[in-house]
Amino acid sequence: MQALLFPLVPLVPAACGLLCALPPFKVRRPRDGFVLFALIAALGLTLWLCLTGNGSRTLFTLGASLPMAARSDGVSRLFALLVAGMWLVAGVFSFGYFAHDPAPRRYFAFYLLTEGALLALCFSGTLVTMYLCFETMTLCSVPLVLHNRTREAVAGALKYLLYSIAGAMMGLFGIFFFTVHSASPFFQAGGTLTGAAVSGQGGTLLWVLLITVIGFSTKAGMFPMHGWLPTAHPVAPGPASAVLSGVIVKSGVLCVLRVLYYVVGADTFRGSWAQTVLLTLALVTVFMGSMLALAEKNLKKRLAYSTVSQVSYILFGLFVANEVAVTGALLHVWFHSIAKTALFLCAGAVILQTGKTRTDELRGVGKRMPVTMWCFTLAGIALVGIPPLSGFVSKWFLAKGALGADIGVFSWLGPVVLLVSALLTAAYLLPVSITAFFPGMDARALAAAYPRGEAGRAMLLSMIALAALTVLLGVWPAPLQGAIAGITALIS
User: Fold this and answer.
1) How far apart are CA 337 and CA 233, in angstroms?
2) 292 with 440, same domain?
């Protein structure tokens, strides 16, 4: 059964995406029903594959020695379930968001194609398979940014494409090197490099590793390859921004995780100058992203800079390379995804209903859109890391892991930067909620400023579901922690 599910999981949403472009789906109700079926089917098949346990399968071989393989392990299941779940929630939101859009079929076609590519990436079993799926996902997601076809959207999409290709080329350079010097082309916990490569390629190996990690971290928005993210997110439609920031950036994290822990190995990386450089870049990105978000007035651009900062929390945990910090990083993969998807969906609903894009234009909006702004507030508090919401749990593990690691100055500098960033996160997110609810405006002025009120039912249900998850996973993180413990025990 697993052998059949490996190709089915990515092919079902991708095939439905292609069918969605056909003329019969010009009508809204059949189209939305078909897309909902595709999203539920993708989640169901993903869950079914995850329940079958560990396994791998070679699908076909390129040339004589490059197998295209699928793999189900703890990491692939962790990321695949996140992709399928967030794609379903954002897809339901999209039904209301694109109710009056002139080209919804095009959006949903590429939305499903991107999901298929992401699921294939999650279940990739070799470096070459991972790279091809990574590039396919980039090409499929560019039209999501480009959807509105304004000059700004075209510029944002091109910048996203160029940065992504540049980062992928850096990653491909490393794939060439690691494939030649690996004992096996298949991912293996602890690494696949031969002893001769580790001992005889010392300096070269670390340089290649550094270039490769920076390349794949482009998708995750790490400095100095972060420039695409605050340009692409604001011009994309609301639900596209949500999955870009909440899910697609995690594809870069997944690739970094596979390279560090399943190809090179933590023991090769730990204590090296390359680790020092990457820790520095991650902390610079954390602080820089928070400062830029604080200064930004455009709501979606502020959230985009927040993603630059928050995803580097994850990278910092991976670069610390001990079990506690990696646990915090993988927890934050989920917690950030849920909170940031919720924030972008709320921002998309506000912009759709009010036409206002700046944080200083939203005075009193919470009294006309209370459900939306309460969801925004809960997700913002979770992202800050205030207990008992989910972000506190992951940041606690990250700080604890850094304090217990043998990484010199970073063992105390890392927690300090994370704490300062958390305070800055509160400073750029919570005032939006305060301004939305507390300044006094009479009912007539509110009705004149925000005549449309709350968004539709499908959009509200999506936001409420994500806000509830930020609370649930903060109060009861044990199941997710247990799944992650099985991963970190093998790789750290």
Assistant:
1) 15
2) yes
pTM: 0.95
Residue 244 is given by DSSP the state I
- pLDDT tens-digit series, residues 30-76: 999 999 999 999 999 999 999 998 998 988 888 777 889 999 999 99
State whether 375 and 437 are in the same domain. Answer: yes
Contacts of 369 (CB under 8 A, 6+ apart): 349, 350, 353, 450, 453, 454, 455
CA 175 to chain centre: 22
Determine the Cα–Cα distance for residues 82 and 370; give it in Å rounded to an integer: 28
**265-282 pLDDT tens trace:** 988 889 899 999 999 999
pLDDT at residue 136 above 70? yes
Residue 245 shares a structural domain with residue 278:
no
DSSP for 407-435, please give it.
-TTHHHHHHHHHHHHHHHHHHHHHHHHHH
Nearest residue to 8 via CA among 53, 66, 47: 47
- Domain boundaries, position 45: 1-264
Helix (H) or strand (E) holding 399: helix 390-403
C-alpha span between 324 and 318 (Å, rounded)? 10
The pLDDT tens digits for 403-414 are 999 899 999 999
Which of 346, 310, 208, 328 is CA-nearest to residue 269?
Answer: 208
